């Protein structure tokens, strides 16, 4: 059997291509970086060999094929590349936004998988063409090297129908696939496994509420290793207050805006790009650090943004705690969840009602993975750094090891 070791992870977005090359033996990051502003005159490449300082320079990358070519040339560059030739890459794992109902787990890419991916483009019109484009670019450059699609939605496919369906007539689900899918699945999955490891248990023994709090944020109620519910929906717009996204609204807000004369694209832009902390905070920033600082200085709009953020989060944690009939742990991850002790501290009072007692010193001073609840807290509060790229690499490794002889 062929020994699988080097895995390249690709996250191909609409105007960027992020990459990480791993040696799976020891889970070592050999190189990572991105090409950004693809298609524009100001395209730029950031490259980091292992833990060396980052290199950054402008590049000519009119499209994703050209961006990938630049990345691969850098990986094999004589003298300071990290591999001798591209044939050393054993498999490529791709982050794919949407698996719809067709993919309940990661899939080895072949013609039939590509065809199925094409039928899912309407569920992620901004991301899916770029995700599929990334796979095709790798097929061109790497030839026979296996590609694996790892879906943001897959981990949430275990949701029961009463959690995943909207209360609309069934024909809208059947005709258009309108239902809750959930996102950040790779992160919720990684954190579920890492929490079990941290607590010395199996995922099948634990009920946890995972809170991925970044610029985009979502929560999941994970019961014995399977998702029971999650806060994002048909798209990543639903749920909690995010950096620039509004999260849940009365759907009639959209109708009102339409009747006020706004187009679908204008409303899309408003709700996805101009709302959330950015829209409410009044400081032209979607960054939690700025919100926290301005709220501490007493700026009313920043206080309102932080209070709304906390209120909605407590609402979801409480709901998921109840759906799980009690939880063993509440877990924080993502840029805010891992780094902002001030944001986590805003939850402390209300979480105590669930028997989850945050230790203020541990919350302030520790960095993850760590416990931030007191020793006698009935429910553990943990900070567990996520690593979506490593999770994609691991899933790719597993699938390729199983299927390629
Ligand atoms: P994305 O969804 O883009 O991956 P991230 O997970 O990187 O987002 O999270 C970005 C958020 O994390 C920002 O709101 C930022 O304020 C917050 N953040 C990142 N680092 C810190 C830090 N050291 N302290 C407080 N907040 C931080």
What is the H-and-E element order? EEEEEHEEHHEHHHEEEHHHHHEHHHHEEH
- Separation of termini? 5 Å
For the biggest sheet, the summary is: 8 strands, mixed
* Mean residue pLDDT: 96
Strand order of the largest sheet: 5-4-3-2-1-6-8-7
Ligand identities: adenosine-5'-diphosphate
Q: What value does the Rg take, in angstroms? A: 22 Å
Number of strands: 14
The number of helices is: 16
Provide a descriptive summary of the structure in words.
With 405 residues, the chain is of the alpha/beta class. Helices cover 38% and strands 19% of the residues. It contains 16 helices and 14 strands. The protein has helices spanning 64-75, 111-118, 128-142, 161-164, 170-176, 185-199, 252-259, 264-273, 276-281, 288-296, 300-323, 334-339, 341-345, 348-351, 360-365, 388-403, and strands at 6-12, 17-23, 28-36, 44-49, 55-58, 91-96, 107-108, 147-151, 207-213, 217-223, 226-230, 329-333, 370-371, 380-383. It has an eight-stranded mixed sheet, sandwiched between helices. β9 and β10 form a beta hairpin. It is globular, with a radius of gyration of 22 Å. The N and C termini lie close together (5 Å). The model has no long low-confidence stretch (mean pLDDT 96). Bound molecules: adenosine-5'-diphosphate. Residues 214-216, 243, 287-289, 334-336, 339-340 line the site of adenosine-5'-diphosphate.
Give the helix/strand layout:
Blueprint: E1 6-12, E2 17-23, E3 28-36, E4 44-49, E5 55-58, H1 64-75, E6 91-96, E7 107-108, H2 111-118, H3 128-142, E8 147-151, H4 161-164, H5 170-176, H6 185-199, E9 207-213, E10 217-223, E11 226-230, H7 252-259, H8 264-273, H9 276-281, H10 288-296, H11 300-323, E12 329-333, H12 334-339, H13 341-345, H14 348-351, H15 360-365, E13 370-371, E14 380-383, H16 388-403
Parallel strand pairs: 1-6, 6-8, 9-12, 12-14
Antiparallel strand pairs: 1-2, 2-3, 3-4, 4-5, 7-8, 9-10, 10-11, 13-14
Bound molecules: adenosine-5'-diphosphate.
């Amino acid at each position: 059997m062929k020994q699988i070791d080097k895995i390249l992870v690709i996250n191909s977005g609409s105007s960027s291509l992020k990459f990480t090359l791993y040696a799976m033996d020891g889970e070592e990051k050999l190189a990572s970086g991105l090409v950004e502003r693809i298609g524009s005159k100001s395209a730029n490449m950031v490259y980091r060999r292992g833990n060396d300082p980052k290199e950054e320079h402008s590049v000519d990358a009119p499209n994703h094929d050209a961006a990938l070519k630049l990345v691969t040339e850098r990986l094999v560059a004589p003298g300071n590349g990290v591999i001798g030739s591209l044939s050393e890459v054993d498999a490529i794992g791709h982050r794919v936004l949407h698996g719809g109902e067709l993919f309940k787990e990661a899939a080895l890419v072949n013609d039939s998988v590509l065809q199925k991916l094409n039928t899912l483009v309407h569920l992620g019109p901004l991301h899916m063409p770029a995700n599929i484009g990334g796979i095709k670019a790798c097929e061109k450059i790497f030839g026979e090297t296996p590609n694996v699609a790892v879906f943001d939605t897959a981990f949430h496919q275990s949701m029961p129908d009463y959690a995943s369906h909207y209360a609309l007539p069934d024909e809208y689900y059947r005709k258009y696939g309108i239902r809750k899918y959930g996102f950040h699945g790779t992160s919720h999955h990684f954190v579920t496994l890492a929490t079990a490891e941290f607590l010395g248990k199996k995922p099948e023994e634990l009920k946890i509420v995972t809170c991925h709090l970044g610029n985009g944020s979502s929560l999941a109620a994970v019961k014995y290793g399977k998702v029971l519910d999650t806060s994002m929906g048909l798209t990543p717009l639903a749920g909690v207050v995010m950096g620039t996204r509004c999260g849940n609204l009365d759907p009639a807000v959209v109708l009102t805006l339409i009747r006020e004369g706004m187009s679908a694209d204008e409303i899309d832009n408003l709700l996805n790009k101009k709302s959330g902390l950015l829209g409410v905070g009044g400081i032209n920033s979607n960054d939690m650090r700025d919100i926290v600082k301005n709220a501490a200085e007493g700026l009313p709009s920043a206080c309102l943004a932080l209070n709304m953020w906390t209120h909605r989060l407590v609402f979801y944690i409480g709901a998921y705690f109840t759906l799980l009939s009690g939880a063993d742990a509440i877990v924080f991850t993502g840029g805010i969840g891992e780094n902002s002790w001030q944001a986590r501290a805003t939850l402390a009072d209300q979480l105590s009602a669930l028997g989850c007692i945050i230790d203020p010193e541990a919350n302030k001073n520790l960095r993850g993975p760590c416990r931030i609840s007191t020793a006698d807290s009935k429910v553990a509060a943990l900070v567990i750094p996520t690593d979506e790229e490593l999770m994609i690499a691991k899933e790719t490794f597993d699938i390729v090891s199983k299927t390629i002889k």
